[in-house]
């Protein structure tokens, strides 16, 4: 399984000949190396409805007939635009031909703001457990620290965890480091930082705080294998 990071919370997974794109916020993301018109994912996974996570889903999915998997209310909304969507909810899992997707809890908010300024309720925010090739990837989405991360770690042998460290809107470096201890992931990658002034952080400081897990601080476009 090949995985790459592309700024903010954008993660790409390549497995079994399929490309999965998580939270494809590209246009407006000054830290990404991607171009929305060049991306051709088979699947888009969304953690919640905020515009900096839904991002360019509509454009990319329409252009490539990508399947969009999202919390059910968000999936229903995106389905009104003619997208192929699968709406899931917290605790639910489904096996697809590219791997298994399970939604976990996240403590945050979730709404989508249209170009006209209308605010659409996006259902519950979520984290994602993705399993394929005998590996487990956890993308925490936007969340604060919460005790059930320990349960997620006990119930799943997590190979890599993508954790927000930006503070202000999500947990900051201290809480994210404690989350890493609860999850017991083999590898931790910081996300959701430095995109906007309120979430400016030093990922190297986060690395120093983490105990018991390896940490990769990735540049946009950097790829690794698990």
Q: How would a crystallographer describe the biggest sheet?
A: 7 strands, mixed
Number of beta-strand segments: 16
CATH homology superfamily: Ribonuclease Z/Hydroxyacylglutathione hydrolase-like
- Termini, distance in Å? 6 Å
Please provide the ordered H/E string of secondary-structure elements: EEEEHHEHEEEEEEEHEHEHEE
Rg: 16 Å
Sequence stretches where pLDDT stays below 50 over 5 or more residues: none
Q: Can you give the mean pLDDT?
A: 98
Molecular shape: globular
InterPro entries: Metallo-B-lactamas, RibonucZ/Hydroxyglut_hydro, UPF0173, UPF0173_UPF0282_UlaG_hydrolase
GO molecular function, one term: hydrolase activity
Domain Metallo-beta-lactamase: 7-192
Protein name: UPF0173 metal-dependent hydrolase DP120_15995
Give descriptors for this structure:
20% helix; single chain; alpha/beta; seven-stranded mixed beta sheet; Metallo-beta-lactamase, Chain A; 226 residues; 6 helices
Chain-wise SSE layout:
Blueprint: E1 2-5, E2 11-15, E3 18-22, E4 43-45, H1 51-54, H2 57-64, E5 67-71, H3 72-79, E6 84-88, E7 93-96, E8 99-105, E9 111-113, E10 119-121, E11 126-132, E12 135-139, H4 149-155, E13 160-164, H5 173-183, E14 187-191, H6 203-209, E15 214-215, E16 223-225
Parallel strand pairs: 3-4, 4-5, 5-6, 12-13, 13-14, 14-15
Antiparallel strand pairs: 1-2, 1-16, 2-3, 7-8, 8-11, 9-10, 11-12
Helix pairs in contact: 4-5, 5-6
